[in-house]
């Protein structure tokens, strides 16, 4: 039986350096100044430096801002996004008279309203420009007898502008897909109208109370569907 510490042969015969636990062979040891992991972290590591087109910090901020948390609202617990909880806490502190919270909340509110107004003004200007330019173009086509060009979508008559409120909206289809959907609805509407007329004739000719009740039920359901379609079609 061999007693005591066992060692492997040295790298070179006669060398004083012994190979064993904590003593790797000289040939396989890392050279001085050389990293033990020259390739660094594997691809996909979270600490990887972002590419030039990435804004990882923004993604992190947005993830945290819209992460749901549970807060107390009166006597109950509610789940809201982190951003909403922060704004609510700021508003509550402002209402309690904390000057810093009042200043921050007022600045945030003013900035939000400025941005909303800027977007509304831009949309209003776009709507007015679109309506005026297409009215001129359609008038030119009519004057020259041009009839083979496609109509604009949306049609300028469907661009509604309320100059008192500064509101602009589109009252009609704005894309070819929406036009196709409206055409389908109009076709279905004609079918439902014919169905109503048919049920009314059946009801007028029927004398059996049980059958009349069934027809009336179908008629009410069909009329309700038709009313919904009329609201969709404007």
Describe this structure in words.
The protein is mainly alpha-helical and 234 residues long. Among the domains are: 68-154, no CATH class; 176-233. Helix content is 53%, strand content 9%. The chain is built from five helices and four strands; from the N terminus they run H-E-E-H-H-E-E-H-H. The chain has helices at 56-65, 82-95, 99-144, 176-205, 209-233; strands at 68-73, 76-81, 159-162, 167-170. Strands 1-2 form a two-stranded antiparallel sheet. Helix 2 crosses helix 3 (99-144) and helix 4 (176-205) packs antiparallel against helix 5. The longest helix has 46 residues, at 99-144. Residues 40-49 have a biased composition (Basic residues). Residues 27-113 form the DUF5681 domain. Residues 189-216 form a coiled coil. It holds the Pfam family DUF5681. Residues 1-52 are annotated as: Disordered.
The count of β-strands is 4
* Strand line-up of the largest beta sheet: 1-2
Q: How would you classify the quaternary structure?
A: single chain
The span between the termini is 101 Å
> Helix/strand-derived class?
mainly alpha
Low-pLDDT runs of 5+ residues are 5-11
Shape: elongated
The biggest sheet amounts to: 2 strands, antiparallel
**For the residues shown, what is the average pLDDT?**
82
Helicity level, as a percent range? Answer: 40-55%
Beta-strand residue percentage: 5-15%
Q: How many helix segments? A: 5
How do the SSEs run, as a string of H and E?
HEEHHEEHH
Gyration radius (Cα, Å) is 38 Å
């Amino acid at each position: 039986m061999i007693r005591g510490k066992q060692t492997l042969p040295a790298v070179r015969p006669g060398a004083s350096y012994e190979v064993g636990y904590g003593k790797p062979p000289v040939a396989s040891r890392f050279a001085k100044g050389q990293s033990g992991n020259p390739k660094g972290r594997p691809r996909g590591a979270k600490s990887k430096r972002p590419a030039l087109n990435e804004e990882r910090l923004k993604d992190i901020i947005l993830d945290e801002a819209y992460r749901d948390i549970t807060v107390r609202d009166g006597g109950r617990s509610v789940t809201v996004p982190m951003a909403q909880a922060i704004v609510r806490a700021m508003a509550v502190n402002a209402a309690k008279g904390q000057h810093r919270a009042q200043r921050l909340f007022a600045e945030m509110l003013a900035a939000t309203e400025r941005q909303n107004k800027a977007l509304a003004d831009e949309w209003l200007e776009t709507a007015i420009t679109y309506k005026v330019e297409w009215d001129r173009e359609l008038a030119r086509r009519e004057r020259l007898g041009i009839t083979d060009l496609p109509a604009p979508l949306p049609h300028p008559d469907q661009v509604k502008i309320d100059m008192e409120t500064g509101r602009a909206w589109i009252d009609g289809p704005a894309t070819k897909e929406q036009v196709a959907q409206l055409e389908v609805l109009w076709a279905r509407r004609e079918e439902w109208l014919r169905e109503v007329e048919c049920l009314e004739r059946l009801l007028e000719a029927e004398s059996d109370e049980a059958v009349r009740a069934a027809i009336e039920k179908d008629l009410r359901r069909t009329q309700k569907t038709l009313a919904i379609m009329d609201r969709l079609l404007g």
